[in-house]
Structure prediction request, 460 residues.
Amino acid sequence: MTADVTDLISRNPADPADVLVHIPAPGARAAADAVERARAAQPGWLLGGAAARSAALGAAADAVEAAADELAALAVREVGKPLTEARAEVARTVAIWRYYAQAPYEPVGAVHEPAAGAGLLLTRRRPHGVAGLITPWNFPFAIPSWKAAPALAVGNAVVLKPAPEATACAQRLAEIVQQALPAGVFTVLPGGAVEGDTLVRRADVVSFTGSTAVGRAVARAATERGVPVQAEMGGLNAAIVLPDADIGRAAAHIAAAIGGYAGQKCTATSRVIAVGEALDPLREALAEALRALPVGDPAGADTVCGPLISERARDRVGEASRGLSVLAGGTAPRHPGWYTAPTLVEKVSPDHPLLREEVFGPIAALLPADDLAHAVRITNSVPYGLVTSVHTADLDTALHGCDRLDTGMIRVNAPSTGVDFHLPFGGTKESSHGPREQGRAALEFYTSSRTYTLAPSRAT
Prediction:
């Protein structure tokens, strides 16, 4: 459910003349057919047993690992991911498939004593059927994998609709993974809004990652059908820096979270809240750290901030900083792609769009706070609540002082970016809808619980 398209076009954001994909969109009928083929394949996948599913997911991990260099280069070319990050994403993708390869052996229920009399009470979790997955372009291998692998592990079939900008990555991932899976169990459905809408209206469980506007529409459509749905959407994440923090280390972490991959992560930092006396030293250290970030060709081994995904995305960063006091920014590299320099601004009014809307680019606002309580109020003042990073040397602050933060994840003395795939991932407010994904939470989401009452067949 992205922009409606008749042709799918995917360009290299570092060199827009380099077209990776230009194909007709499949359309609604093809999308419906993909779901029905998956539905026909699903029972056999489930009944094949835990050992077969575990072996298949393990083989998928091995196949992805064998193609690691190819996949990293493809992510650099199609979505402009800096090479170091692309390699790390592929390594994480391998780890995700290996982690969920053990899941088929996990318990799927429990046995309970009845309240009175003989017999047994059982709970058992069963797959929904066909999992419809709609994924963004910024993590073209990891996000499809952390949705597909748990869905497959518990016995669902999967239909994946990637963002058009990551079509080549999704198709290649599918070709590799499909070598280890029965036919029809894992299908890639290229497309835009028509294909995404059809998938949401036909799948038995839906998982979405993308923009808030589209995520709301997905959640509404799935809920109207009564099927389980989760939607991971936007972020307007804050970094809180207290006076006792190691300012240089905090600045390095925050700069990476602002400018890494050109800020194109839902966990990127877009607000930096300096508490009390931390303001002046942090202003200087963070501006210097941002100016020092290597910006340029994503294929370069040292590049941290590559191009933005589109010309419009690049222009949004410039529009967001217009008229503000700029502490770091400047001229972007002279390349044919859609580049911009990491930007830090200050003296931003509370009603400025930069403090209310996600830009999805390498720009952040520096904001002062009187104390920790004030910093928490500023953090919580936005419609989103995905992740907050807190930088402090005080253990009590780390463990208890941030309990009032209304965000799904809190990272202490670490960048706001970064995902632990074996733990629940998600936020509050407009950042997330529905159950968490990743870790054991994903196994629960892709199954439904059944309760069985087993009474004796004859009186005792």
